[in-house]
Structure formats: C-alpha cells, structure tokens
Amino acid sequence: MKNKNSIVQAAVVGLGWPGMQHLKGYTVDARTAVIAVCDLDADRGKEVAKEHNIPYVYSDHREMLENNEIDAVSVCLPNFLHAPIAIDALNAGKHVLCEKPPAKSAEEAKEMADTAEKNGKTLMYALVQRFGGSSQVLKQMVQDGELGDVYFGKAGYVRRRGIPIGKGGWFVDKDRSGGGALIDIGVHALDCVWWLMGSPKPVQVMGAAYSHFAHHVPKDVKYDVDDATFAHILFENGATVVLESTWALNLPGGNYIRIAGTKAGATLNPFTLYTEEDGKEVDKELQAPSIDSFDEEVKHFVESIVNGTDPISSGHQGVMLMQMLDGIYKSSEEGRSIKITDL
Ligand SMILES: NC(=O)c1ccc[n+]([C@@H]2O[C@H](COP(=O)([O-])OP(=O)(O)OC[C@H]3O[C@@H](n4cnc5c(N)ncnc54)[C@H](O)[C@@H]3O)[C@@H](O)[C@H]2O)c1
User: Fold this and answer.
1) Residues in contact with ligand 1 (CB, 6 Å cut-off)
2) What is the pTM of this model?
3) Do residues 58 and 37 lie in contact, with contact meaning Cβ atoms separated by under 8 Å?
4) Mind listing the pLDDT tens digit for each residue in 301-338?
C-alpha cells in the first residue's frame, strides 16, 4: 500500500475494531497511505500488514516512531495508553489522530495538547459522531442561525445491556480506562451535542454514577467502573446539557441527540427540525448525505495536516471535554455540584 506520491504517510497503532476503521479511512483518501502498523500482538500486526500490503510492522511503538517515513499516527489503543503514546508520537515529530476518550483525565489531555503545540504538530481526537452526515448538516444549520440561540441540549448513549471488556479486561478497570459507560460511550453523546451547540465553555456539572451490573462480567475480571451515569452541565453562555450514558440499564436502549434554540429545535435521530410557522408547530424531516463517518474523520485529519489548520476536534477541545467528564465523576463521588475551576 506504500505510495511514494502520498502527502501523508500514516501508521496505525492498535489493531482492534477502531484501528481497522482508521486504516480503511486512510485507504480511501487518495492523499494518504498506511505504511506501518503496530500491535503488541505481533501475529495480529503481521496478519493486518499482509492483508493490506503494508511494508512496516512493529510490536513496539517506540521502534515504529523511529521510522522517519511516517508523518502521522493513529492511536487506537486502550485509554491508559492514549496520553503516553500520543505524547511519544508528537515528540517524535508525528501528527496524531487519537481515539476517544481523549485521555483518562483533563490533566493528561492538557499535556497532550501542550506537547502538540510545542512540536507544531496536529493533534486531533477521533470523535466520530461529529462526522456523520446529519451531524454535519445540523452543525451548518446552527452556524447559519436557523435554530437561533441554542440553549438546551439533551444527549443519550443508552445500552440496555452491552458492557465491553476489551483485551485483558481494560474497559472495566478504572486504572486502565479512566471510567466506565460515561468515559466510553457517554463521551460520544456529550461531545456531539456540545459541538453542535458551539462548544461553549463548561462552568459547572452535577453527576451521578452507578455500578449495578458487575454480575454481567466474568468473576475473574476486575470491575470498578460505572455502568450508568447521568449528568447535568451548565455553560458560560447560560446553556444546559442533560446527559444519559449507560452500558446496562433496565430500560430500552438507544442513542439520541436533541438541541433546542430560540427559533427552532432539532433531533438527529429522527433527523427532524421542530419549528413554528404562522404560530403553528411544524415538524420538518431533514435530509443528510449518506457518508461513512470514519472516512470523513480521517479525511478531516488529513486536511488539517495538509492545510495547517486546526481540526474541529482539537487538543484544546479534548481538554474541555475531559474537564466535563472529570467533573461529573467528582460530583458523583462527592455528592455535590462541581465548578470546573475547582477541578
Ligand atoms: N470510535 C469508536 O466507535 C470506538 C469503538 C471502540 C473503541 N474505541 C476506542 O478505541 C480504543 C481501542 O479500543 P479497542 O476496542 O480496539 O480495544 P481492544 O482491547 O479490543 O484492542 C486494542 C488493541 O491494541 C493493542 N495494544 C494494546 N497495547 C498496545 C501497545 N502498547 N502497543 C501496541 N498495541 C497495543 C492490543 O493488542 C489490541 O489489538 C479505545 O480508546 C476505545 O475507547 C472507539
């Protein structure tokens, strides 16, 4: 797959499901080629390299980072490795596309953003829900003022049953994941609704995290994370977000994003605008192009590198996102609302 004419030569580290989505995204973008893959599991690395005709294979990311032909690295690793390996890559002069959540904490995310800035490299977070067709259309409508001032958002990523374990149980071990349902899937819903609302600065959060489904995880797996978290976030511009995120809940599952402004409101699923015409309530079905959100995400990363522009899901945004998550967990632990400035 090596192509000497590629503008951006990429490497993917971590070859689970998301790693393969990144690999596919680079493959469909004519300006890029994946020239290296890296996985701790050497057989997995060899298998993927063979299947996709990739010349360099590594099982140690430090060796991979010595390869000067690599311009950009997709970090698709368990959460506890996002900060250290993204930082190593940035310090080695590579651009980084890092999977969600940005890190285990805002402190780590800040170090990542600072390292990117120090090295003059692009750091983008793979917050894939921003790159869906309907998200992109709705974002443009908000920017064009069609909803007026957006002051309320409600988002949910709700699974009735669906606790991930990951290789070696890292998803459900707080030391390695940073948390459970909130940091794993709540982050998608929160990020998307927050971005649609213009990414206002969070000021205060209130959250409650629950863990009632340990019996759904094998007994020998350490389980010390939330399987349901609910939160309320206030922003500097007066806007509010209500968030629901669950890996397990005794209610039907589903994903939703709803935003409301002074002129109109909208939901992503179904993709509908809720407005008023001549004093009457009107619901309008909206249309969105059918696009592959992972391909769009990689394309945006490549464009940010090529054009030298900030990606929409930047290192700085990753810090604010992690501040909200840190605040929600702290609020739950301490049983009080948390000001972001007190974190
Ligand atoms: N965007 C999405 O929709 C989405 C979906 C699933 C997971 N994710 C995120 O992607 C990341 C990875 O999740 P996953 O489901 O692939 O996890 P996983 O445990 O299934 O796979 C991780 C892979 O990384 C490899 N690995 C672990 N440590 C390594 C190291 N030090 N060097 C090289 N390779 C190493 C493992 O061998 C494994 O192949 C997580 O941050 C997760 O939150 C995102």
Assistant:
1) 13-19, 38-41, 44, 61, 76-79, 81, 99-100, 126, 128, 166-167, 184
2) 0.97
3) yes
4) 999 999 999 999 999 999 999 999 999 999 999 999 99
**Burial class of 204 by CB neighbour count within 10 A (0 to 12, 13 to 18, 19+):** middle
Distance 96 CA to ligand 1 centre (A): 15
For the segment 231-284, what is each residue's pLDDT rounded down to a tens digit? 999 999 999 999 999 999 999 999 999 999 999 999 999 999 999 999 999 999
Domain ranges of the chain: 8-129+294-312, 131-292+322-342
Residue 294, H or E segment: helix 293-307
CATH architecture, domain defined by 8-129+294-312: 3-Layer(aba) Sandwich (3.40)
- The answer regarding whether domain 131-292+322-342 maps to CATH 3.40.50.150 reads no
Ligand 1 atom nearest residue 126's Cα? 1
Q: Are 210 and 228 in contact (CB under 8 A)?
A: yes
